Amino acid sequence: MKIIRLFSFTLLLTCLLNIVVYSQEDLSLTDKIPVDGKVKIGQLDNGLKYYIRQNSKPEQRVEMRLAVNAGSLCENEKEQGLAHFTEHMCFNGTEHFEKNELVDVLERMGMKFGGDVNAYTSFAETVYKLHIPTDKPELVDKGLQILEDWSHLVSMTGEEIDKERGVIIEEWRMGLGADDRMRKKAFPVIFKGSMYAERIPIGKKDILETFEHETIRGFYKKWYRPELQAIIIVGDIDVD
Known about the structure:
2 domains, six-stranded mixed β-sheet
């Protein structure tokens, strides 16, 4: 068994080294990623970028994304966890969708939260996802309205912020365990001298429990700006 494991490890290491050598010969870290000529790329006057591509498979479906160029690395000491908290608040009331109405609207559109509607927060970005049917034009319009609301029209009421604290704390609690302990040991070594070791997206429990409402509102206003955002739309649609 040990010989088999050693052979497997050696084979894997050889493959990885071959990939690295091949990559170094053909690519450079300074090379730009080739752009698909079928993608329509543009920028609005306010700085918002868009990427749109027609793709007929699967039929009558479109993927929409709002990508925000801000994540946990953008947080200061008193904001740790607020990039992720802001992501949650986008589902708790906007200018056109009060409180939990957004989820109800999406479900009436035939979408399921988690599979068709979701979001994630990482170190450098926050991304919101919609998977929308295109058989009715008004559904696509509704999807675009939702993206716009997320981009700069989130309500951030004090009541909803305080209600969400418990949800976030429970998510923080569920993340505790062996992986968390290993991360706390490994990250300061792997990312020594970098903010990556200090800005885990889930944040710190004491901050999540006590931050002022204006702190997260300020974070949202500071980082959710059009020049830091992009809309990505791919699916069975007319690009023009």
